[in-house]
Amino acid sequence: MATDDSEATFLVVINGEEQYSVWPAHRPVPAGWSATGFSGARAACLEHIDTVWTDMRPLSLRRALAGNACA
Question: Membrane-spanning regions, if any (predicted)?
Answer without folding.
Answer: none
